[in-house]
Design goal:
The chain is an all-alpha fold. It has one domain. It contains nine helices and no strands.
């Protein structure tokens, strides 16, 4: 049996690292572009995408339990997946964490399967400034980087958080880690690489 507080504390460390990376990248983006871009919106988008990944992990073993719910709700500081879905649908999709938790497994898996489409706009606007800095630094920055370094850092933090979630219910099945990798690719990496390679 794993210490759930310790697992969550390690997840918070990875979250804080990702948050710091995103904040630094946003700062560089603002200085390069001269825009008044709000880093809080990027952090909120990260939370929404991260929760999408975590929901896919929690549902992959066909059991979405309360300890996973608390982990997913509490890890995010700046944004919330279901608040976004509700706002984006003008209230037509009025999901809450409690409603999602009580839904049948089939309904939960249906939502997970359409998350890449539901979150496509968030993915694009999250990735754009980060990929721009990633590409610019690799070409013109004073740090030795290659395109994708920032992506790999953020993805690594997301995988760490997702893996820790997989163990919070004492199971830690490979299907859960695979679900994280697949959703991270669908939500983040595919968009990021598309912009860098364009």
């Amino acid at each position: 049996m794993y210490d759930k507080q310790e697992i969550f504390a390690k997840a918070v460390e990875a979250y804080n690292h990702a948050e710091d990376t995103i904040t630094r990248i946003d700062s560089v983006f603002r200085s390069i572009s001269g825009s008044d871009y709000d880093p809080e919106s990027t952090l909120a988008q990260f939370d929404i995408l991260l929760q999408g990944v975590l929901v896919s992990v929690a549902c992959s073993d066909m059991i979405f339990d309360d300890i996973e719910l608390q982990f997913i709700k509490n890890i995010a500081v700046h944004g919330d997946l279901f608040d976004y879905i509700r706002a984006d649908s003008d209230g037509e999709v009025d999901l809450t964490w409690e409603v999602f938790t009580e839904a049948e497994t089939k309904g939960q898996l249906s939502l997970v399967s359409i998350l890449p489409q539901v979150l496509a706009d968030q993915c694009e606007s999250f990735v754009l400034p980060l990929a721009a800095v990633d590409f610019s630094y690799s070409r013109f920055g004073n740090l030795p980087t290659t395109p994708g370094d920032f992506l790999r850092s953020i993805e690594s933090d997301m995988i760490t958080i997702a893996t820790l979630l997989a163990f919070v219910d004492d199971e830690g099945e490979p299907v859960e880690v695979n679900a994280a990798a697949e959703m991270i690719y669908a939500l983040v990496e595919r968009h990021w690489k598309g912009l860098i390679e364009a």
